[in-house]
Design brief:
single chain; ten-stranded mixed β-sheet; two-stranded antiparallel sheet
Length: 289
């Protein structure tokens, strides 16, 4: 079984090498990477990795940001270039971690269509965030997300976006794949309604807040897309653009990280837990690669 991963990236120099190296160590056979106009050295990092890993690199420095179309294009390219049997539509801040003793390929079959995988946010402790600790050293995981009402992300400033529910992601069988949809959270497949399933061995760990610099750069990129007229964008990005423009980003960082005085309360309520598994897997994979 050939497992390919595609990544749509822009200004991910702080994490893209770790993402590709870790997933290569965990069972991904090839990568299709589309760069959306990076200016921080991201593209150069990927090209250097392509000297030793099977990576197809696409430059797409446009602001129309047609995510679903581009992700579908990359999934089809993985089938054409590498003979991929299955593909993962990934983001640079997501790490697909198998259960202990498992591999990312263990659930792949010749007859499946779509495998749904749970996704969890990893929170940065504020002290570690302020001193610039590596993102993968953090192990506070949102285990029981808060069921905020749907909508209101932009107006309800008191929310902690990181503590809310987030959608899972999918692995898609290449033969029969029709389209990657919903911000890479869903897919259309010719026979998907027959034999899709929920993964019991893979969790997607999400690290969207890694440093002040990368966070601000991401928001500024989203702001440029909105000004360009891009309409399909998550409300959390719209919220962050609004807070950035109104000078309230520091207060938002307080809500997105875990200050020392708030940690024990969140642990006691069961909203978060300590999960050292992704840190262990990522560290071992980086050391081995």
């Amino acid at each position: 079984m050939h497992l390919s991963m595609n990544l749509l990236i822009k200004n991910e120099a702080d994490i893209i090498a770790e993402n590709i190296r870790v997933h290569a160590a965990l069972g991904v056979d090839s990568f299709v990477v589309m760069d959306n106009g990076s200016t921080d050295g991201t593209l150069e990092i990927v090209r250097a990795l392509a000297n030793t890993l099977p990576i197809t690199v696409i430059e797409r420095p446009t602001l129309d940001y047609q995510q679903s179309h581009w992700k579908t294009e990359m999934a089809k390219m993985a089938r054409k270039d590498f003979g991929a049997d299955w593909t993962i539509a990934n983001d640079a801040d997501e790490f697909w971690i198998p259960s202990p003793g498992c591999n990312l390929k263990d659930e792949l079959t010749q007859t499946g269509s779509i495998i749904h995988c749970q996704r969890k946010n990893i929170l940065f402790e504020r002290e570690a965030f302020d001193r610039g600790a590596d993102f993968f050293t953090q192990n506070l995981c949102v285990s029981s997300p808060i069921n905020y009402r749907k909508g209101g992300e932009v107006e309800e400033v008191e929310r902690s976006i990181m503590l809310g529910k987030i959608h899972g992601k999918v692995i898609v069988r290449s033969p029969g794949m029709l389209r990657i949809k919903g911000g890479n959270h869903r897919a259309w497949h010719a026979w998907g309604w027959l034999n899709q399933k929920q993964s019991e061995r893979i969790t997607v760990y999400h690290y969207p807040i890694r440093s002040r610099e990368s966070f601000v750069a991401n928001i500024e990129n989203r702001s440029a897309l909105l000004k360009k007229g891009v309409s399909k964008m998550g409300n959390h990005y719209r919220r962050w653009v609004k807070l950035h423009d109104s000078g309230q980003l520091e207060q938002e960082i307080d809500r997105l990280t875990v200050p020392k005085e708030r940690k024990s309360t969140l642990l006691d309520l069961g909203i978060i837990c300590e999960d050292p598994h992704p840190t262990k897997v990522i560290t071992q994979a980086l050391n081995a690669s």
